[in-house]
Design goal:
This protein is α/β, with parallel strands linked by helices. The protein folds into two domains: about 25-145, Rossmann fold (3-Layer(aba) Sandwich), CATH 3.40.50; about 145-255, Hypothetical Protein Tm841, Chain: A,domain 3. It is about 30% helix and about 20% strand. It contains nine helices and twelve strands. It has helices at about 60-70, 85-100, 110-125, 130-140, 165-170, 215-225, 240-245, 260-265, 300-305; strands spanning about 25-30, 50, 75-80, 105, 145-150, 180-185, 185-190, 205-210, 230-235, 250-255, 270, 280. The protein has a six-stranded mixed β-sheet with strand order 7-6-5-10-8-9, sandwiched between helices. A four-stranded parallel β-sheet has the order 2-1-3-4, sandwiched between helices.
């Protein structure tokens, strides 16, 4: 079942093209329905939801994934580091059985809500004329522009952000709450008058997902960050494991305008992967995991002169 079809890259801009006129050569997949956020605009393509892929018979899962690859061409699976190990093992098994170089796994160190936002940004860009390699690489690029964190009722089980002994001790004080920024730069403060987190230096929208915690502090943070607006979505199931508690309100500041996302991606230098030939951004191909070969040092001139013709 090996597939090797390639798609070239384009250069046109997204403005003025209706979504119904577009063929999407790359599908963006998530591992559960709660990671597929509502469409940002009429151009945002639907997410492919791989719910329960580790529970299906292996033969059925192989057939379904192969059908997706044949339907779209390429598949980028966006998942968090809190995604169950059984799901990731099954995905890697399927990719190996299909011997396919058209399935990529994008698993940055973002909290689950940040992962869901990143997946939606890629779904927005999937409606444009970006080649599969560029679109997959865009996930690594756009991660730098996400500000993801949470308000927590306890940091006693938080192991993904550095937590000092004093914060651990305060976790046991009834009523204590903490504001944590996990990305791009870890920050942790105890919520009190004047508490703040360093935010983005550009305008963003903010998405909020509430668990079993009540707090008005996130609304104030939106004011500090001068966000365009604040929208609420359900809390992803993986958030409880990622943050170590269900008493959480997760938030993510992000860029929402398609034209801005497109300009960011297309303004970066593009190269071709030396191994699979796809156009990529940066030094890693998300599909084949190849990095540019190291250049061998030039031979000393004295040796060159002695070399036979």
């Amino acid at each position: 079942m090996k597939s090797s079809r390639r798609h070239g890259s384009g250069s046109g801009r997204p403005a003025g093209v209706k979504s119904g006129e577009l063929r999407v050569p790359t599908a963006i997949a998530v591992t559960s329905a709660d990671m597929a956020l509502p469409a940002q605009d009429e151009r945002t393509v639907p997410a492919v939801v791989l719910s329960g892929i580790d529970q299906k018979p292996l033969e059925q899962a192989v057939v379904e994934l192969h059908a997706l690859i044949e339907q779209y061409g390429y598949l980028v699976v966006v998942c968090s580091r809190a995604t169950p190990a059984t799901v990731m093992q099954r995905l890697h098994t399927l990719r190996s059985l299909l011997e396919s170089d058209r399935v990529a796994f994008l698993r940055p160190g973002l909290p689950p809500l940040g992962i869901a936002v990143l997946a939606r940004q890629l779904r927005q860009l999937a409606s444009c004329d970006l080649s599969p390699g560029i679109l997959a690489s865009a996930g690594r690029l756009l991660t730098h522009y996400l500000h993801a964190g949470a308000v927590l009722g306890s940091v006693a089980r938080l192991d993904r952000v550095p937590v000092g002994l004093k914060a651990h001790a305060r976790s046991w004080v009834p009523g204590s709450q903490f504001a944590v920024l996990a990305h791009p730069e870890p920050q942790l403060v105890r919520i009190a008058p004047g508490a703040a987190l360093k935010g983005p230096e550009f305008s963003t929208w903010m998405l909020v997902a509430k668990g079993r915690l009540e707090s008005e502090w996130v609304g104030g943070l939106g004011g500090q960050w001068s966000v365009h607006g604040l929208r609420e979505v359900p809390l992803p199931a993986e958030s409880r494991d990622w943050w170590g508690t269900g008493r959480v309100i997760e938030f993510c500041g992000h860029l929402a305008d398609l034209s801005v996302l497109y300009q960011l991606v297309t303004s970066v230098r593009q190269t071709s992967c030396h191994w699979c030939g796809l156009d990529v951004i940066g030094d890693l191909c998300v599909f084949c995991s190849a990095t540019p070969p190291a250049h061998e040092p030039a031979a000393p001139r004295a040796l060159e002169q002695r070399s036979p013709a």
